[in-house]
Amino acid sequence: MSLVSIILPTYNRSKFLNSAFRSIVSQTYQDWELIIVDDGSTDESQAIIEKFANSCSNKIKYIVQSNMGPARARNNGIRSAEGSFLAFFDSDDIWLPHHLSSCLKVLDDHTDVDWVYAACQRVEYENGNGNVILPSTFYHNGEPNKLFSLKSRVYGNLHIIEDNRAVEFQITYGIDSGLQNSVMRAGVFSEMLLPDFRIGEDRLFISMALKRGFKLAFIDDINVHYVVHSGNISDTNLSEENVDKRIIVMQQLIGSYKQTFDYIDNLTQKEKNALNHRLADDWFWKLGYSLQWSHGLRQQAINSYLEGIRLAPLRLTFWKTFIKAFLYFQVQKLRK
Fold first, then answer.
1. Domain positions in the chain
2. Where is the Glycosyltransferase 2-like domain (predicted)?
3. N or C: which end of the chain has fewer CB within 10 A?
4. Could you give the angle at the alpha carbon of 266 between the alpha carbons of 205 and 189, nearest 5°?
């Protein structure tokens, strides 16, 4: 058996830690070490972690750092990893018992695969009844995501991606991978570490890995319960009622996409076009329209619309929406 280094960054997640530890201990694959990186927690995390470490027979490493964000926490964990494979556990999620074993079987059976991931099921936490919000992140309304249209070698529910459009797809649609639902060969990190972003570092890292020639594969099965709650910092938490927080998250995500050009210097023209298209849509529709204009933040929305138009000046739908919004905004100012 090969050692798997599980890297668990955490920040003030004490109420989730015991569930996280039960999930890890319950894995059918047991040859693992756990590297916990505490990103400056101020709650009861330390006491819970130390109690678990004293009771666990597997090797536990506990690293404490000042609050620097999840990417730096994960990178510190990567530097301490001794395993041939790396897996990432988000402290508020739950791995199903077969997660490590099913991913490692793929990596053992297919030596050309460097990174394997499976689907998540999104589950609501706040009301305490575990309502399923999304049965599988690989499907929407029962229909398979764009991911399945990529050219792949298929073995049952395993799809090994062999499509030179993968980076373009990742930028435009996403290929439904994250760190928390993946297992990777340690060699992936011998060439690069995660970008130092608080939001979007995993999305950029996927493109970086693909551009460096690492091969990704996915298993069409549920391996992870992604727990949705008010403390999520991901842009996927659409239930978040704090509009200001959602705006900040979207701005940070846009910032991470903008920096793609700094991290990847060999994008094809199609990939560059896809990135500009994505940025334009995020500025205009996701930030400007859905988050700012729809919540009465008119001037901020106008500014975001202009950023989208700057990136895609020939998009007629942008101009139509912008002109209508601008005229409405001017009339409202005159009435005041």
1. 4-228, 243-335
2. 5-136
3. C
4. 35
Tell me what pLDDT residue 58 has: 95
CATH code for the part of the protein at 243-335 = 1.25.40
Name which of 236, 251, 233 is nearest 292 in CA terms: 251
Burial of 141 (0-12, 13-18, 19+ CB in 10 A): exposed
* Ranges of the chain with pLDDT below 50: 235-238
For 6, how many CA atoms within 13 A lie in the half-sphere containing its CB? 27
| pTM: predicted TM-score of the whole model, two decimal places | 0.91
Q: Tell me, yes or no, if the two domains 4-228 and 243-335 fold the same way.
A: no
pLDDT in tens, 144-195: 999 999 999 999 999 999 999 999 999 999 999 999 999 999 999 998 999 9
